[in-house]
Automatic annotation (TrEMBL), chains A, B:
Keyword Hydrolase among record annotations: yes
Species name: Clupea harengus (Atlantic herring)
Name of the protein in its database record: adenosine deaminase
Sorted UniProt keywords: Hydrolase, Metal-binding, Secreted, Signal
Superkingdom assignment: Eukaryota
């Protein structure tokens, strides 16, 4: 005979149960347990919400929470400010120091010409022999290395040997600072200097042109990449996927090196760097072309990409299109060229920039869907993804992570206050994302830590914890272009660093 | 015997089918039909995406699309600018004129002291007899009507009769303009004047205090509300739900009228207004108390609210809490008081402000969930809802609409560029929303048209169309506090106006 659930309980207990039932079921007040359940359910959905944490990780979480609360209660909340103004505050914060020390895994969205602090470019590279400078008629600069006087180029009537020039002036600091200003977007008053996206993008493209002659000088090219790896490594980033234009580089006598040279050089530099820094895991290259190309031009580039990947499968991860989306051609325009590898039966992983826009409903705004239809491996930026529920669901189903670059989006005027960054929606839903820094050198950032700060403090809210950071770091390996075997190796390496980090930073 | 699906087809057709199959299934290019299907699916999810449109409505949509594209292609895109700077551009746009003419249904989130253009307060009310002014020691003003010299009050040592004062100066325009400045948040350079939310909220509360003595003077109180209805009616809004503090009003001799007087006055003014404007449908009042109250104070207010609703069921719609959420007490703190009506077995519809914040993960950020658990009928603002997937899903399941007030959110510094307004996410998912104007008079807006412009052009993107506008208008009746019978009546009335609007504005 089945026993009554209340059988064996005393009268007093029964009365207590009835009272409890009344309180929960009959009281007009919302049930606190149900409320607690919903809150927990919501929290478990967010990035890192389902990560099982060790005792030590939980303890670290208490510290993280306290530090974050301090930041949020300050009258000047850095993520609500423009990064150029917030940077000194961030740099001084204890939480930032902690994030710097944290092993962050890989940086999956960074560009070839914006890896290295421009201080290094000015203080090291421009002081090398044979460096010429030209002040353009539109208030910018160009550099070139040459064994004899270079010829004038558009906007540039006169090249001056920097060595001679510096010898003539007493104090080189002003000159060097003017170079630095030309090589970054930094300015005291960004709101005034960059009233809209057109203006800031124009300046953004100018800085690339200013750096071009320095970075594409073959000897510098190697050193620049090596220095970049050094700076990311110092920021506790162990792996890099580099969006690279694979430009021709030049020698002092003007001879040009081709794309194969460039790609080979990347491969050699990575090998050398890893040999010297066994803690570093490596780097791969995503070959990029500009959205300004026409369809048949892109077809040729794709053919070249297929060839390069065949020859350099180790270093070459895949292909992407770069440049401002709003003024460029939409992905769908290139569909034929981009379908070429599949038609040839070869694999060409794509890592498309898509949705780096706030203009809704245009052809460009369709790029995210088209990237997915073209079988992209990740979505670069995906700033507009939250406006596209079907596309967002598809991206989740396909396991396609979004590369979130908070500081880049702010400087390029997609968002003002980081708390409004759409990644907050993605993180609240646990959508696969990774954090990256896009062009750290141009924004005055470095490595990944500043972007991790913005994401963790500004975007993810007070309830994000050790699990959030852990998931973001693990994601950067999980969603990388590495083979399953290499992912496994990288994860083991990262886990060791992580465990050490947790133990060393317990409160 | 079952027939083969291809039986009876000719050889040529079979070949064609095979070719077709190859094109669709075997081509490496994404299938354009599948793409089109996904795009349509996404579009059908957005606000208005499933509204069936008549031929005429579709034709109007073509015009709307053209006009919106013009706005988006302009170098100065109003929704990307602060409303104070955008307003002259909006006022001159053809699309705005169209939205003014459009029958917008009801305004469900507007406050009692910010209904009427402040010009009217200054040019009409302050020119009435017996109006005293005082310039406070903190650069604000106070007004009072009195039959003899009023006594000093805090911050206000000297009251001057405005009539006498004006008689002594040659040109009253400067004085009047200074009053206008004190009664609104308008300023030439809002970014500089209001560097953060604390500063703008302080000024916001100041403007209420400045208007207080004018609006709570009993004769003005009636006229003010009448004028408010007139201005909303002129903006083609046919129904109002007013968040009202139900303050004591005063007579010239200083006698005070109680809440019952105030509520009765609202009721009488509505009746009179509807009698004179049979096209107008009516107005109801949501009694509001301040989040600064403590729990037992609120309990008393709730008891009073229950009593008022029993006595004035026609005009009184329900209850809400007002004041800045971030510095006020969270809803959960008041749970006992707010559960009182249910405990008493009486109905007290709630219309809670919740989620008017960008601080994530705090107790205040939990207000939206708690509002739902307390059975709220709508959510005021819900700016933070998109950061709470579980709460968002619950709100949708419960059919609880979010009252989106774009201009208010921008002026009070929750968002800079309207394209980043979180309602864009809600609209893309077809979450139930209504558009309202919160405190139009304080922002230099009026009625609903400016907020409809921001929502339609800035938030909803290029693909939103006649269906979007139609759904927004219908929502304002569907999610109102009206009885099902009155909703039906209001919808019939609205539909007539709408059909006329569509026909009269065909391209």
């Amino acid at each position: 005979m089945p026993r009554s659930p209340l059988e064996g309980t005393t009268k007093a207990t029964k009365l207590l149960l009835v009272l409890l039932c009344w309180t929960v079921l009959c009281s007009a007040m919302p049930d606190p347990n149900y409320r607690e359940h919903l809150i927990k359910m919501e929290q478990s959905q967010q990035t890192g919400g389902r990560v099982l944490l060790s005792k030590a990780e939980q303890q670290l979480g208490v510290l993280l929470h306290k530090l974050k609360q301090q930041e949020m209660e300050s009258s000047e909340f850095p993520p609500a400010m423009h990064f150029f103004k917030a940077k000194p505050l961030i740099r001084n914060s204890t939480l930032f120091s902690l994030l710097q020390k944290m092993p962050k895994g890989g940086a999956l969205h960074v560009h070839d010409f914006a890896l290295v602090d421009v201080d290094w470019l000015v203080k090291n590279v421009t002081y090398r022999q044979h460096c010429y400078v030209c002040f353009t008629d539109d208030q910018s600069v160009r550099f070139i290395f040459a064994s004899c006087q270079p010829k004038p180029v558009p906007h540039c009537s006169e090249w001056m040997l920097l060595e001679t020039m510096r010898a003539k002036i007493d104090n080189c600091t002003d000159l060097d600072n003017s170079f630095i200003r030309n090589l970054t977007l930094y300015t005291d008053n960004p709101e005034a200097a960059y009233p809209n996206q057109d203006v800031v993008w124009k300046r953004f493209e100018e800085t690339f042109l200013a750096a071009w002659g320095l970075v594409t000088y073959a000897p510098v090219f190697k050193d620049y990449f090596f220095e970049g790896l050094k700076q990311f490594n110092a920021d506790n980033v162990m792996y890099l996927e580099l969006r690279a234009l694979l430009p021709q580089t030049y020698e002092l006598d003007g001879t040009l090196n081709d794309r194969v040279w460039t790609l080979k050089t990347y491969q050699e530099v990575v090998k050398q760097f890893v040999a010297e820094h066994p803690d570093f895991f490596g780097a791969r290259v995503i070959f990029t072309a500009h959205r300004g190309l026409n369809a048949s031009e892109l077809k040729e580039v794709i053919k070249e990409a297929v060839q390069l990947q065949r020859e350099f499968p180790e270093i070459m991860a895949g292909f992407d299109l770069v440049g401002r989306e709003d003024t460029g051609r939409p992905l769908w325009y290139y569909r034929e060229a981009l379908s070429l590898p599949a038609e040839l039966g070869v694999s060409m992983p794509y890592f498309f920039h898509a949705g780096e826009t706030d203009v809704q409903g245009t052809d460009v705004d369709q790029n995210m869907l088209d990237a997915l239809l073209l079988n992209t491996s990740r979505i670069g930026h995906g700033f507009a993804l939250v406006h596209h529920p079907t596309t967002k669901a598809l991206s989740r189903k396909m396991g396609v992570a979004v590369e979130v670059c908070p500081i880049s989006n702010q400087v390029l005027k997609l968002v003002t206050d980081m708390r409004n960054h759409p990644a907050a929606v993605l993180m609240s839903e646990g959508h696969p994302i990774v954090i990256s820094s896009d062009d750290p050198a141009l924004f005055g950032a470095s490595g990944l830590s500043y972007d991790f700060y913005e994401a963790f403090v500004g975007i993810a809210g007070l309830k994000s914890d050790t699990g959030t950071l852990k998931e973001l770091a693990v994601n950067s390996i999980r969603y990388s272009s590495l083979s399953p075997k290499l992912k496994e190796e990288a994860l083991v390496k990262w886990q060791k660093k992580w465990d050490k980090f947790v133990v060393e930073n317990l409160p």
